[in-house]
Amino acid sequence: xxxxxxxxxxxxxxxxxxxxxxxxxxxxxxxxxxxxxxxxxxxxxxxxxxxxxxxxxxxxxxxxxxxxxxxxxxxxxxxxxxxxxxxxxxxxxxxxxxxxxxxxxxxxxxxxxxxxxxxxxxxxxxxxxxxxxxxxxxxxxxxxxxxxxxxxxxxxxxxxxxxxxxxxxxxxxxxxxxxxxxxxxxxxxxxxxxxxxxxxxxxxxxxxxxxxxxxxxxxxxxxxxxxxxxxxxxxxxxxxxxxxxxxxxxxxxxxxxxxxxxxxxxxxxxxxxxxxxxxxxxxxxxxxxxxxxxxxxxxxxxxxxxxxxxxxxxxxxxxxxxxxxxxxxxxxxxxxxxxxxxxxxxxxxxxxxxxxxxxxxxxxxxxxxxxxxxxxxxxxxxxxxxxxxxxxxxxxxxxxxxxxxxxxxxxxxxxxxxxxxxxxxxxxxxxxxxxxxxxxxxxxxxxxxxxxxxxxxxxxxxxxxxxxxxxxxxxxxxxxxxxxxxxxxxxxxxxx
Length: 496
Hints:
This protein is an alpha/beta fold. 33% of the residues lie in helices and 16% in strands.
């Protein structure tokens, strides 16, 4: 069970961020990793709880789920790291996880939020232990192609190559089915490729995994937009099953006067353009023209908004302002947000930390929104009107709504506007092509905890099914959908 009492004697230590003055000028990885001795010491803090909330992935009360939805055997892998049994730790992690190299870089660590150590101190650094396990496994040659010994003769088309599509493809291929993944972009990876900046998830990490999957037999087809370049009818004719993993890729817009001004972009388009430019030039050229010397306004306070802040700084922005409609979270848990619920507390991420260091202040302005974009004579955005918000209870519904505070209007400079306000659901042209039923939020509808759509032989998974969520939940959905597809083909499934 690790080292008895270590959680009391050993303080939590995590990797360090590279100095701001260094990392804010490149797109290299953000972190400096711990050495093996430090990692083992951190793993020793795990208490091997009788009820391990870290691996439950369950909802507590009305809060969002806490703990790992993949049900990684966290105490076991931590103990194996502590004892130096790295290969066994990898084999244990590999039982439940498709891509630990992805989640160990981008997951907000649901496992750590549910760690029992939170009751009286700091959680075990499970996310970092996971990264150490998988990177050690790659370095030692333990991660090898798992080529199925027998093929079933069944064919499956996976539409979308984000984390859910890749997880499903991996599982179904290893089962022995022939899997083809269709991607509308020029490179495989979906959200992993173009939605997350390279400093958070190096694209060579994705390529390393894709090479393995190709060796295992998965076929990848790029630059094919299903519903445009190929019909749903053709796919259903050519394949035994179709799995829709297209994400919740319809961005939420800001509909105010001046929205048609030049220089206003959806965050996902901006981040894609930056990453594509870097990849196309093998990181020899940074697209400084997108932000250099400009006042950048980011609308949205989530992870994507933070990525826009960090990316804009790397491209030489003159200033960066980030707007968030909701109030500033508390610095620590409130009595209404007890463990093991997900902690609703203030988080200062790498992008905000860089903005504080570069510009001298936190870029975030809470309880504020845009009411108008102002254009110059050439039609370019040059300013934005913003207004403070307050929470007011609707007497009819009992809900609290954010409404403008009279007299709080202000005009700020804005040469580039990045809208990071989340996503509304799946894109209509895809769901129309397959004629699948939708939920009121435009996610693809299935029965609860199931993945078959209203159309025969068509399944769905990931954000397209669940709604906008985390990479780890997308992987979970992909693996579960693979089971459902497999069972529909073979009448049973032994996929985990």
